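Hi R.,

As promised on Friday, here is the backbone we talked about, encoded as structure tokens. Could you run it through your design pipeline when you get a chance and send me back a sequence?
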């Protein structure tokens, strides 16, 4: 049995959970017949899945985590602007996105600072029980 299965599941399912809202909102847009916006969300989800699989740390054991997290995090940021654009169609034009609205996204980048300098290979040096 793979000793690091939990870490692999954490990486894969963590990112899947991080993009689940995009898939759900794309479904809402499809139900509302906003086909272009719904398709945009689907493209973001597919690109995120590709970035997560191709950028998996066990595929690049010597690469620092912060580098591997850049593509999914940038796609997450793109998804926020996609959602804002898709939802803004029903609002008056004076309702603009302000930088303060993005403050809630700060927790998304915390892993870059807490364990971003770590590498997958660093976990191989741990002693097994």
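Update: got your reply. Pasting your designed sequence below so it's all in one thread:
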């Amino acid at each position: 049995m793979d000793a690091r299965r939990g870490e692999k599941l954490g990486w894969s399912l963590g990112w899947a959970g991080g993009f689940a809202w995009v898939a759900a909102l794309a479904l809402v847009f499809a139900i509302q017949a906003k086909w272009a916006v719904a398709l945009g969300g689907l493209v973001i989800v597919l690109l995120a899945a590709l970035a997560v699989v191709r950028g998996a740390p066990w595929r690049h054991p010597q690469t620092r985590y912060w580098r591997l997290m850049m593509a999914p995090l940038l796609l997450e940021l793109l998804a926020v602007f996609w959602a804002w654009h898709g939802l803004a169609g029903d609002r008056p034009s004076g309702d603009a996105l302000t930088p303060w609205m993005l403050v809630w996204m700060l927790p998304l980048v915390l892993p870059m600072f807490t364990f971003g300098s770590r590498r997958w290979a660093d976990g191989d040096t741990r002693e097994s029980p």
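One thing I noticed while checking it: The chain has a mean pLDDT of 87.

Thanks again,
M.
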